[in-house]
Amino acid sequence: TEAPAPVAAAPAAEPAAEPAAAANAGKVRFKLMSQPSGARVFYRGKERGVTPFTLEIPSGQDGSVTVELTFAMEGYQMETVVTGGTGEVVLSQKLQKRRGGAGGSRHVEVASVSADETAEEVEPVATPGGMSAPVMLAPTASPATELPVAAAVGGATAAAADAAPAKGSATGLALPVLPTAAVASARGDVLPYNEDMPRPEMVDQGKDIIYTREAMAAKSSGVMIVRCTITQQGRVEKCRTIKSVAHMERAVLDALTSRTYKPIVYKGYPVNVDYTFSMRLVAPRR
């Protein structure tokens, strides 16, 4: 008898082509725009691109992500937005000219965010100083204290170390004055932020600002303003909430106090500075 002919193995089926969407699996696409265009966008302290452009961020296990984005452009105030979502998020941010510039305005147009191609309209909110620019609130003057010049500045002359003399008021009473940068640095005084100081430069972002479950359920959104001390070592301490967003205060405070900045150098001396952080929180859409 003849041996049975060998049975040819069936050819292996070619793997099906992956859909285009699979290439973006595990990422959220942020379509970022600004008015005017050409703003630099920073995420986690690094520049990511110039508007308009698309930024892809890895998503979490639930397919969503929350991000903090800062828009910066010459002649305009920096604007910070915290938002997120799943799939594709469209974010359009209107920039405000710096105070003193031509056509400058104190009115802030808020960001509009949506998970679809059409941006969702959000009611504008007026905030002093812009969204992420320092909000110049009146500082509380502390009583002047006497300090030996040698102890304050390590032997510098009195003329160089002492604060400027107090000016008389209309009633003849002496008005309190802020110490010089040298004295403030030596004594550890806290100075209010002013336009002559450099903007804080982040070294380590620390914790991300994550929307809480309660804030997600309530769709909490709005501008949150927090005043903190940036120390001579670059730490963020003694944060006080000026304006809050429902269910988000603790998350924002924890994130801010985990950050590290370059020490703010004022007139050649590192100083402690009272700085006001202002950011817009836009509830992520799922």
UniProtKB/TrEMBL annotation:
Tell me which UniProt keywords the record has, alphabetically. Membrane, Transmembrane, Transmembrane helix
Q: Which organism is it from?
A: Myxococcus xanthus
Name the UniProt record assigns to this protein: TonB family protein
Q: Does the keyword Isomerase apply?
A: no
Give GO terms for biological process.
transmembrane transport
Q: Is the keyword DNA repair assigned to this protein?
A: no
Question: GO cellular component annotations, sorted alphabetically?
Answer: membrane
SUPFAM superfamilies associated with the record = TolA/TonB C-terminal domain (SSF74653)
Gene3D superfamilies in the cross-refs: 3.30.1150.10
Q: Can you tell which superkingdom this protein's organism belongs to? A: Bacteria
Residues covered by the TonB C-terminal domain: 211-277
- Region Disordered, as annotated, extends over 98-120
Where does this protein reside within or beyond the cell?
Membrane
- Pfam families of this UniProt entry? TonB_C
Entry membrane topology? Single-pass membrane protein
